[in-house]
Every structure is written in structure tokens, then in C-alpha cells.
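Archive entry. Fields below.
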Amino acid sequence: MNNEAQNKMKEFKEYINKIEYLNSAASLLYWDMSVNMPKKGVEYRGKVLGHLTAEIYKLETSDTMKEYLEYFSKIDDLDEVHKSMIKSLKKNYELSKKIPEEKFKEYTILTTQAEAAWEDAYAKSDFSLFQPYLEKIVAFNKEFVEYWGYKGNKYNTLLDKFEEGITVDKLDNIFSELREALVKLLDKIKNSNVKIDESIFKNNFSKEKQEQLSKLILEKMGYDFEAGRLDESIHPFTIGFNRKDVRITTNYCDKDLRPALFSSIHEGGHAIYDQDISEELYGTGLGDGASMGVHESQSRFYENILGRSKEFWTYFYTEVKKIFQEFKDVSLEDFYRGMNVVEPSLIRVDADELTYSLHVIIRYEIEKGLINGDIEVENLPEVWNAKYKEYLGIEPSNDKEGVLQDNHWAGGMIGYFPSYALGNIYGAQFFNKMKQDIPDIFKQIEKGNFEVIHEWLKENIHKYGAVYTPSELIKKVTGEELTAKYFIEYLNNKYSKIYNL
Amino acid sequence: MNNEAQNKMKEFKEYINKIEYLNSAASLLYWDMSVNMPKKGVEYRGKVLGHLTAEIYKLETSDTMKEYLEYFSKIDDLDEVHKSMIKSLKKNYELSKKIPEEKFKEYTILTTQAEAAWEDAYAKSDFSLFQPYLEKIVAFNKEFVEYWGYKGNKYNTLLDKFEEGITVDKLDNIFSELREALVKLLDKIKNSNVKIDESIFKNNFSKEKQEQLSKLILEKMGYDFEAGRLDESIHPFTIGFNRKDVRITTNYCDKDLRPALFSSIHEGGHAIYDQDISEELYGTGLGDGASMGVHESQSRFYENILGRSKEFWTYFYTEVKKIFQEFKDVSLEDFYRGMNVVEPSLIRVDADELTYSLHVIIRYEIEKGLINGDIEVENLPEVWNAKYKEYLGIEPSNDKEGVLQDNHWAGGMIGYFPSYALGNIYGAQFFNKMKQDIPDIFKQIEKGNFEVIHEWLKENIHKYGAVYTPSELIKKVTGEELTAKYFIEYLNNKYSKIYNL
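PREDICTED_STRUCTURE:
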């Protein structure tokens, strides 16, 4: 960049910094709302958040933004980071600008109403109350796709919003391979003679002790408590106000040790990612994960591949026994098996590591059908139930445990679900490379040397933030295109041992 | 207002709402920084707060603001609230605009540096390290007074910033009357035979139990926990994000029950005020206390007049004994006396109800002298120590427990201290009227009927927010001009009984 361009870039980053400051403030308002806020504060908080969001939108879609983007689109010697910065801001600018402002406002109002309608429908377990809203949301999304344009399948455009470069063609291949493998493995497990005793995890565990264990593990994993904190909220989540203040929440269940424990590890995986992002990316808009799916790959890697491995607990089990004398007479093997029970279930968020992806694939197939007009909203409950029957062998007895269980669609998030399963796939593919780079990795885990894993993730993935698209990143890290093969291999290996297949 | 003016007012309130939303967000950022933030978050948080503050400043001093103010200055049928709204926003606008922007920036940088220098000087107990900064701050304030203009004494302009309508003439009268009375009463107490045993309060009190007691009392006082919460921070404070989310903090001392207890009650007084402000004042800029002094009158009323009264503890002492068995054998009388010990001391924030105002009067006299050129910064330690000797009969042995103890001046707050003593005076004057309106008030307190007090404060003071200036309010509520007579009377009565004078 010549001098003029360099100065202009400095200015532009100041401009982006302002957006990031407002995002940081909005995130705190949101965090506080979930963790601390007294109940009467909600109405005004909504207004404050609404104002900040509107200000952010203004800055992201302003003429100033347009001028900067036009200027830098003509500069041809941008380095990798700045090239990515301009590309990503431009994408965001166009996503917003191509939709007429009136449409966008209507849609915002619609999703707010739809969320309320969903709550009501969910409480009453009655899809028909939500149906008219969902119909409108689907119609809007179809219209948006026309505004944005599409290549190949219409659903591609929505997928690309959340997972750049992912297409229906790719997902059809990957998900059908995965689905077949999962259904096959699940069948074998159903016929296995091994019965796992989960009751060891069902007892009265005090919140204080659960918190103690979560903190101990998080600390050891590499989560920096001087740049974060652990709190409680109804739904566990991770939120960063900047890379030096990334907070996680969990939710304690006093009758089962697992939910809070694995939520903490899961959110810890997200948070470590955010804490590791290079500080140089402040003011570029790239100080975030590469995508929702890549972010999920980190949380699921920590939660499942690491956090439900025998080696992990070989290291931690002594600590567990110190805190909870309930496990005095429980063997490590039983403890390990108890956290790896596979059991088809109806609710995605409670699903085990194996069946989880099937829940996601069902949603993917439905979304694709809705956007392409192959499935109508009014038929959703039947379509839903039939797919559960087919893939998982069980059927919801009502809408609440079926089609109404998630609120993503009410919020207008269509195209987002696949990222959850992609997270598993990315995670296993990364792990495969990690094992090549660190041949004695399982020994290291047993010894509690999580530093070596954290360092690998930081250097190969985390520090880059959103500089690379998911497909660029997976190629850069593993040398291969995205493939489900490592995830399938991993599951087959792990569960063949556990279930003696 | 005609139709045009009404519409314009609606627009204007939308504009003010935006300022209030940003203030609400900034307040949460600040609260979180004191209560929750992990230590590495501080640098970025400073930037976010800096950005929001700058945005607020821009909106408060914009041409849009100027146009609205000019428009409404010409409308002559504004009602009381809107008249006050325009007056108050205009005052604020002019305070900001009359200072050249460059000067203001310089001053902001100076105070940031001065705060750091004060911290260093305080840690080393060496005034000379802070002196050059304070000299500059005083010089700036003198210059500001010239920009802003003044009537009579130059210090009037600074007083008026915090306590509209208060002048040196008024304060000289009021404070000299108060000072004489306090010094006289203090002398008698020093010569009293009554010795109070404070040791009953010095024990090991768990944080959990202290919190339990604070919450119980706050709830009963009328603090709405559905519109607030109690947390811990190093320095206790109250902060509102809107009237339905007003939070307080306290600081637990495990060796003395009193500090956290009375901080909680004090902050509760502030918070109840904020919670009671009429919702109609949203978007007027008047949704705050009438002044810093009036705010302090509410906190001190609850903390001292109510919270250190025999009647208050007649009601609560059973609860205290239930929570702390340490008081099993302590009589109510001893408990009451133990929280009303009078003892000249060096540190303002730790001072008792009686001597507290003397600390403030000393600062008032010094500030007045500095701004009028009668006292030089370099002589401050001697001036300070001499005044402590004269009014309180004790002398600091170093700067840390003397002139360096408060950081108000480092932050550029000159003219603010008097509000602390005015709070006591307002409080007693309000209370005098309250006793006339509720003749059996002491009976009501003994029965724990704090509702009647809360209601009186709400209807007479709280709900009006900042619609009235402090002098308008005191006149409106009590029918009299501000006078120290009721505060002096109250102290004489109370302490004559306690110390058998």
C-alpha cells in the first residue's frame, strides 16, 4: 500500500473500531441480561440494545463505509489480512444493502412477533400457532435469496451467510455419507449386549462443587480466568467483549453431574478460541471465529473428542474423586462409559455425541426443502416426525418435543443449523492432523499436558480469527478438502470399543 | 404548546432518549468494571467507555441540540417539566460549549494523568508528587470560571455546577453556623463521662450473613429487588441504568459489622430515590436526582436519621439476633450506642454522623481559598492540618491520612464536596417536615412500617426527579429556605441523650 492507502487504512480501522466498541457494549448488555439483570429491567434494556444495534447497522451500511470499500477494492497490493477484511466487510455491506430498508424493517418486526408466537406455541405444544409466522419467515427468506442472488441451489445463499463456501452439493455428499454411517453404527449399538450404567451420574451434586470442578478443568484446558469468568444462566453460552474478556456461562443441574460439566467444557472451547485471536485483528472486523461451524468445531473438540476421552479422565479422575466422594467406588472405566452412552432421543440439545448430527441433518434437509418449495410449512410436523422415525427410530409424541423444540427459525435463522454438524466434522479433521503433528498426543493428555493441544489450536486455527474462510482454513490446516471421513472413523473406533461391536 | 411545538417536542425527546440509552449502556460498562470484570479487560473497556462518552458529548453539544434549545426557548407556554427540561439541557450545553474544545481535551488528559499521579502520591504518602497536577487543575478551573462567567464569588460558578442556586454567601452562613454548633457539641462529648463499648461490633461476621441482613433491611426499607440487585465492590456505590434497574454495591468487612451494613442502607437510600423517579421523565434528561446534595440527603436520611435511630433497631434487633448469635447477650441500648459513637477522626469516609460535616467544611474552605487565590496549592498540607487541628482537635501525621485522602480533586471535581454536608442539612430539614405530616412517625418506625416514610419521600421528593432545583425543592417541600437549624437540633437532641450531656 502506498502512503495514501496506508493512512486511509488507519482511518478505516478507526471507523471499524467504533463498530467493534458498540458491539462490545451491546454484548455486555446482552450478557448482563442473561446473567444479572433484575426482571423489571428488561423493557428498557431492550430499547438500549435496539438503539445500539441500529447505530451499528448505520455504521455498517453508511456511505462512508461504501466509500472505504470502493477505495480499497481498487487497491491491488493488499496483504492477506486486509484483503480478507475488505472482502468480509463488503459481503456484510451487500447482504444488508441489497434488501430494501422497508423489507428489512418488516422482517425485523416479523421475527420479534414470531419469537413471541413460538414461545406461546412451544408452551402449548401446538405448531399451528407458530405456522403462519414461519410461513412468512420462509417467504421472506425466499425473497431475500432473490435480492441477494444465488448460484445453483437457492439454499446456497443462506448457507453461505453462516458458512462461506458451503453449498448444497457439498453438504448433500457429506451429510449423506455421515448419515448412513451414523445410522449403521447406531443400529449396531442398539443390538449390542453392552448396557451402560448411567446412574452413577445421577445423584445430588451441590452447585458449589460442580463449579469447583468446572473451574479446575477450564483452568487446566487453558481458559484464562484473568480474561474471562464463569457464571450461571439458563442456557449456557460464550460471549466476548474483546479477546481479553471472554465470558462463559453454564447451567447447574443438581441431579446430574454431566450437563453443567460438559457445557462448561464446551463453552470453554469457544472461549479459548476467542481469547487466542490475534490482537492485530482489532479494527478489521475479523476478530471473530472463521465461521459458526469452525467455532463449533473448537467447542465440540474440547467437549467430546477431548472431554469425553478416556485419557482426559485418566488425568482428571483423581480430582473428581477428591471433590465428589460419590465416585469413591466407581471405576474410571465406568465413569468413562457413563458419559458416553448412546441413546436415540428426541431433543437435539440433549443428544449424545453420535446421534447429535442426525438431528442436524434432519433440519438441514427440511430447510433445503422449504427454501426450494419441496416442503410446505404446514406439513412440517409430519415431515419432522417421519424423519425422526427413519433416522433415529423414535417419534415425537407432540410438537414440543418435535418440530417446535428449537427457536432458530422463529428468529429468522435459516441456514444456520448445518454449522452444528459441520463443527463435528471440522473438529475430527483437525484432530486427525493434530495427531500427526503430536504423535504422543494421548500420552500428553493422560499426563494433563493440555498446553501442547492448546498451542497447536492457537497456532493453526485460533490466532487467525476470521482471516480465512472455513474452506480455506481446513485446507490450510489439514491439506485436504472438507471430509466426513475422519469424524466417521473417530466415532466407529470409539464406540466399537465402548459397545464391544 | 401548539401542534408544531408538540411534534417537535416528541422528536426532541427521541433525541434525548438516545443520549439516555448511551448513558444507560455506559453505566452498565462502569458497573461491570467495578463488580465483575476480569482484570485483563480493563484496557479495552476504557476504550469502549471512551467512545460512548464521546458520542454522548457529541449529541449533547450538537447543532441539532442547539436548534432544539433555541426553538423551545422561544416557546412561552411550556409546562413546568418542559421548562425545567429546556433550562437544564441549556445549562449543560453551555457549560460544555463555552470551553474551547482544545482546552477541554487538554483538561481531560490532565485529569487522567492527575488521577494516576494521585494514586502514586497516595501510595507514597507524598503530596509533592501530586502538587504540580493539582496546580494545573486549579489553574484550569479558574480559567473555566472566566469562560463560564460568575456572579459575586468566583467559586459560585463551580458550586452551581453541582448544586444549582448554592452560593458562597449562603454556604458561609450555613456552614459557619453548623461548624460552631458541631465544634461545641463535640467538645461536650469529649468531656462526657459516657464511654461507649464498640467491641460488640468487632467480631468475625461471615459475608453471607452480613449480606442476608443487608438484604432483609433493604427489602423492608422499600428497595425493590425486582428492579435492582446488591453486589460487592471495593467502594460501595449506586448506579441506575433506568428506574427499573438501579443497583447497589457494598463492601463486607469481616471484622466489623457496621461498614457493610450502613453502606448498604446508605446506597439503598440513593437507590430508592432513583427507583421512584417518575417514568414520564424518560427522555427529558430530568430522570435523575434534583442534585448531588439532594441525592445525598436521601442516602444519609436512611443511613443516619433512620438507620442509626433507636426506633429502627427496636424493630430490626430481633432479626439481627436471629442471624448473629454474637448479640445474644447484648442489649438493644448497647447495640444502638455502639453504632453512634462520636470520635474525631482523620478520614472523612470513616467519620461518624456528627464529625462528618466538619471534614466537608474543611474542604469547602480550602476550595474556596484555592479558586479565589487566597490559598496556594503548595501550602495545602499545612493548611489542611491546621484546620483539622482547629475543628477536630487532631492532626494527620502524613499526607495519606491528610490532604491526599480523597481523589475528587485529581478527577477535576472542585465544587462537589459541599454537597456531602448539604445532604445532611437537607435530610434533617425534610425530616422535620415529615414529622409534622406523620405525627406518630417514631411509632411507625418501631413497628417496621417503613412504607409510610417511603411513600412520603416518593410523593414529596423522589418522583419529581430533577424537575426542581434543590432550592426550589426544599422550599416546595418544607415551605422554608435552606437552614442548618434542623440538622443542628437533631444532632443536639440525639447526642445529648446518648452522651448524657
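CURATOR_NOTE: The two ends of chain A are 60 Å apart (CA to CA).
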